[in-house]
Amino acid sequence: MTTASAVEAVFRIEQARVIAAAARIVRDVGIAEEIAQDALVSALEKWPDSGVPEKPGAWLTAVAKRRAVDLVRRRENYARKLAEVGRSLEHAAEPPPAEPSPDSGPEADIDDDLLRLIFTACHPVLPTRARIALTLRLLGGLTTEEIARAFLATEAAVAQRIARAKRSLAAADVPFEVPYGPDRAARLDSVLEVVYLVFNEGYSATKGDDWVRPALCEDALRLARVLAALLPNEPEVHGLAALLELQASRIPARTGPDGSPVLLADQDRTRWNRLLIRRGFAALDRAAVPGVPPGPYVLQAAIAACHAQALRYEDTDWAVIVTLYGQLAAVRPSPVVELNRAVAVAMAEGPETGLALVDAIAGDPELKDYHLLPSVRGDLLARLGRWDAAREEFLAAAALARNDRERELLLTRAERAEQPEQPGQPGRAEQSEQAERAERAAGEPGRTGPGPDVVPGG
């Protein structure tokens, strides 16, 4: 590896911590990112001659802190800034040695700064898409081009989104701090929502021609692990980490060689990642706090655990899943959760019971353009042998679907409903489609409330 490659690799790993350290001093994430880039340039200039330091992350952080302090000192309003930052600035403003020391700053300070950066990037003052883009840029280390490619947007649009987010944070004078007290729960929910939605877009892409985008899942999973390490006493943080570990374990089995979806009942479970499953169960254990009722992410992780425990599709305990969806509906009610509960009931008690529950919520305006509603009805109608009605529902769902792979799957289901081989006797494909819908993502902002409601698909 060349020195330049080593610098880039280190910066990708350490970027969030470097930005966080600078942001604590300048109190502006946009300026902090520019300072971090300056530190990168300094490393590219010096490391080829001096070699890569023993602790390259600490080297970059020390350079960024020094430049941040110099910037604050040069400002005309330095006195006001000094009063705001107080003793923490005075301590940080101590000039470092001529060459930055790799041992500068305790790990606790770095972790605190990183946590502040996470809560700032995910601040509710920003629209959801802006929070996602800014988090991936500052904390995920993704370039604007990478974010645009992942979300099928133009690079210019993503760049504008990130720039507006930085301006909005500055205009709102969002404090660079970790919230405490009553505000903490709401702010934490915003952070978890961002990480969840990033994972969900990778796990079941809402549009485009890829069913799965593993790189996005990996970015979200890494962020979830960071949060779990920084907030060890927050059950919902561990619940989210458990959920993502368990769901990510299925990714190798979710698509065929040509990228087409492989439904839950047909997946080769020997391809599920057992290490991720063990990590998921460990995180779920950490999320269990005696006397504290489980929150929505813990409940979703428990649903995912039911599937991970089943060595065969036929071993799935749908009765337990029905109970867990009932608890989820109680703590985070929404028509989408009720839709998923209805599917679980259909798997446990039969399609007729499930269809009655679906029809009871079909008129909810939040489900008006939700393609999984007609898809679920089509599945249930097919299981009841009502093939003409099932075909119409699958066609309606295909018209609403934005993901090309999912649209193809729904159109295939519609064709299959035209000439059923065994009317009234659903095969594994139909049953697995039901299971897939019971596990499909539905955390769409503005549709189901402040956060996601159900776990991603099989």
TrEMBL record:
GO biological process entries: DNA-templated transcription initiation; response to stress
Organism: Streptomyces tsukubensis (strain DSM 42081 / NBRC 108919 / NRRL 18488 / 9993)
Family designation: Belongs to the sigma-70 factor family. ECF subfamily.
Region (Disordered): 86-107, 411-458
Domain DUF6596: 187-288
Bias (Basic and acidic residues): 430-442
Domain RNA polymerase sigma-70 region, chain residue ranges per copy: 14-76
Lineage: Bacteria, Bacillati, Actinomycetota, Actinomycetes, Kitasatosporales
Keyword Transcription regulation: yes
Superkingdom: Bacteria
GO molecular function: DNA binding; sigma factor activity
Full protein name: RNA polymerase sigma factor
Keyword Transcription regulation: yes
Pfam families registered for this protein in UniProt: DUF6596 (PF20239), Sigma70_r2 (PF04542), Sigma70_r4_2 (PF08281)
